[in-house]
Amino acid sequence: MIISSEQKQIARKAVLGVALLAAFASHSSAQSADDALINKLEQKGILTTKEAQELRTEASQDFTTAAHSKANMPDWMVMPDWVKSYKLSGDFRGRFEQLSGDNDAFVDRVRLRYRLRVGLTVNLHDNLEVGFRFGSGDPASGFATGNPLSGTSTFQDNFSSKSLYVDAAYGKWSPLNSDSWLLSATIGKMDNPFAFTPMVFDQDLTPEGGAIQSGWTINDKQSLSLTGAAFVLDEESAATQDPFMYGGQLLWKAKWTKKLATTLGVGAFQIVNAHQLNTVNVPYINRGNTRVPFVPLIPPGSSALYVLKYNYTPVIADAGATYTLDSFPFYKGAFPLKFAGEYMHNPGAPANNDGYWVGVTFGQSGKKKTWDISYRYEYLGADAWYDQLVDDDNLAFYPGDNPNANSTFGYYGGTNIKGHQIRFNYSFTDSLTFSITCFLNELINRDGLVADYYVPDTKTSATMRFMADMMWKF
Questions:
Q1: Residue of 30, 85, 188, 439 with fewest CB within 10 Å of its CB?
Q2: Fold of domain 84-473
Q3: The pTM is what?
Q4: Residues in Cβ contact with 268 at an 8 Å cutoff, skipping those fewer than 6 apart
Q5: What are the structural domain ranges in the chain?
């Protein structure tokens, strides 16, 4: 095979380019990248043995030069020796949203919205990790901070600039990280370490506090994981009893055959000093919990607050089974069928204290030309769980005031809701997914509604929320 001088020059530049880029990695990574490329060019006959050896020498010299120049770079541009690697990631979501209801008092709405998240994860030596993420979002009503249940911003206000918040900021240490055992501890504002669904925790919620996660891979078919955490819900400057939450979850995963896999989990939580979580101290976004009025003595003439009437100490169980078909029409690859459910009971309240959902998912999106469609029915009693933590996309219409819950007239997510959810996802590429979601809901209990707004028929609170999303991730 005759190799032209031009081809040799291209090969030479390619190798030298690899050497320069690898200068920003470790020395061993640089040498392995150079050697692999040169060996391949030599095997293809593009380089002779002599030319290959000359390139190895030149690449080594150029790496030394590049590394020297790296040492002369400004400190903020140089990766410290104790940094192992870093990763920039995030996503952008554009959304069309329509809200409609059966009640004549409900105002049908259309909104265009977006969500942006971008973050950096830095992996350090000795199994250490530091990460942060910025996210978009509209302010929570009455607060300068962002909405804890949503990073979505609405197109409005004459093209006004939108807010950007700290969505996550954490440090993590994993003293055990082997094929069989995992043990890690995280502090800060973090992605939710628990594997519960949005009936328990909204998917955008990033709790603040500390968490410990452990895992044991029993064999290639079974594994156990245990998560425990304590999260701060608020800091009260005028009180010594701050509200916080702690709890844990045990999760068992098993793969019985090549086609059948199951999951089984159980967990429990407790909110301490819940009386501090009144409608003034923290953002009041969702509705549903039973609240009672309370008039503070200090300062004199203070307006009434609404405080939680009951305690929230739920026990939660979930289970799922996935059966994978070899193929399915209009689907690329093996096709999973998943049946799952979740149940929650709060012994801290005397009634309306249960929640559950059951559903099925066909397929799995996320990879190029894959899709899934899912259905679930959910019933979430008013006092099954603290309403400010659950899915805010799952809404219903309150046709009037409810004195027991301080629920004003309007459209709210939270507890005291039952209904259906249908969702479809299609991934055009590994990084671009189109989604359609539809919620069909109504209130479970309308007791106490003011007569001026109350219409005594079964359609009073029924609503539909339709969302079409396009998600880019990187």
A1: 85
A2: Porin (2.40.160)
A3: 0.82
A4: 247, 248, 313, 314, 315, 316
A5: 5-77, 84-473
